[in-house]
Write a structure and sequence with these properties.
With 132 residues, this protein is α/β, with parallel strands linked by helices. The protein has a single domain, classed as Response regulator (Rossmann fold, 3-Layer(aba) Sandwich), CATH 3.40.50.2300. The chain contains 5 helices and 5 strands; from the N terminus they run βαβαβαβαβα.
Length: 132
Amino acid sequence: MAKKILVVDDVAQNRMLLKDVLRYFGYEVVEAGDGEEGVRMAREELPDLILMDMNMPVMDGYTALRILRSDPLTRGLRVAAITSFAMGNDNGSVFAAEADGYISKPIDIRELPAMMEKILAGEGKMAGEEGK
């Protein structure tokens, strides 16, 4: 059975790109356009992994992640933060919000499947750290 991925991003083109790449590699993909919808979809779908943009209107990814971590139903779901600010202070903010990993924007779609597998496996490796 294909692993289910929830893509939460307010930019439709980003969701479409991720959906196309992930489906190509055999994942089942569901999507949400903001953090509030992402929380609802996470509760309904219980995906294997959530790819969560951190900067969105309505409800940002930080807030959505805190809600997911405080809910017994979704507490154990794996979440990878997607952020264009993966270095410096934002990195600390992402992990303070209890993400399982992060993927930097712009997303390298050639490396995405390997990054996903690492996060799904619970290795905790973050995008861009492979050579460090």
